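chain below, 95 aa
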Amino acid sequence: MAPLLGTTCKRMADGWGDGVGSGCSGERGGWGVGAEAVARVVRELMDSSRSMRVRELVAKLKERAAAALAEGGTSITNLAGLVNAWAEVPPPPPR
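prediction:
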């Protein structure tokens, strides 16, 4: 599998157990993927035997994201902790 945007994509694909790389070779300044590459990857994924596995994975990720953003979820809790930590930082001394 070719990495989409380097190490991050490869780690995600390896960690999730599935993924499709774009084969991005830096033709768009090293950070972009052209429409043709996206279309090819989508066709490859949807026409493969892996499509159901990827759909199931995305459904699970969607549920986890919703739970994290719900009241009491990890995203809300972590953001509140960050705000509270910032509130405890004393202001800088006057100049």
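The first helix runs from residue 7 to 16. The helical segments are 7-16, 35-46, 51-69, 74-87.
thats it, cya
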